[in-house]
Write a structure and sequence with these properties.
about 35% helix; alpha+beta; about 190 residues; globular; Alpha-Beta Plaits
């Protein structure tokens, strides 16, 4: 899916969930009003299905870099996290990992494209075949696939976090919540 344009990826998410929404239909859906980042009712429904399929969660961390002798918080890193399917052979980069990451990418791209044109840049880090094992509150372990998004200054890379980056983070988190995606810290 890496070569698909934004609207095609959103339409692909609709196709994955079996609705058969075309790119033209997706554009109409995107233009309708929904609280938070406007995605459209059908697209929101389709993305919610993808999130539920993978028990998706998210995590937000400040992006801190060293500039000269100072630590500078210059943006945010957001991870979308999917549970690796149980029963599937757990191997980094396997077909189940790629499918989970692809579904996370549909969600991330639908959100990211709505932030284009702001003074901050929101980007999706390319796929890296890896798995993380996390201990759950009940003591069980969960294998996870992770997609990372970053929010950074469009200009003046090492400036401190500004209101635009904070608003982008807030809009993304609010949209994740509307899609039924919980914070991994509260999961």
């Amino acid at each position: 899916m890496g070569s698909l344009r934004s609207k095609e990826r959103i339409a692909a998410a609709a196709m994955v969930t079996g609705t058969g929404t075309s790119i033209a239909q997706t554009q109409k859906l995107e233009d309708s009003t929904v609280p938070g980042i406007e995605l459209g009712k059908q697209v929101t429904s389709n993305l919610r299905i993808l999130a539920q399929r993978h028990c998706a969660t998210y995590r937000v961390d400040p992006a801190v870099e060293i500039h000269g002798s100072e630590h500078v918080t210059m943006g945010f890193d957001i991870e979308l996290i999917a549970a690796h399917p149980r029963g599937a052979r757990v191997l980094p980069g396997c077909n189940a990992c790629r499918a989970a990451w692809g579904d996370l990418a549909c969600i991330a791209e639908a959100v990211r494209v709505k932030l284009d044109g702001r003074m901050s840049i929101t980007s999706i880090v390319p796929y890296q075949p890896s798995l993380t094992t996390t201990r759950q509150p009940d003591g069980s372990e969960r294998d996870e696939v992770r997609l990372r998004m970053s929010i950074r200054h469009r200009h003046d890379y090492f400036d401190e976090v500004d209101r635009c980056e904070q608003m982008c983070r807030e809009d993304i988190v609010e949209t994740f919540k509307r899609l039924g995606i919980r914070s991994s810290l509260s999961a």
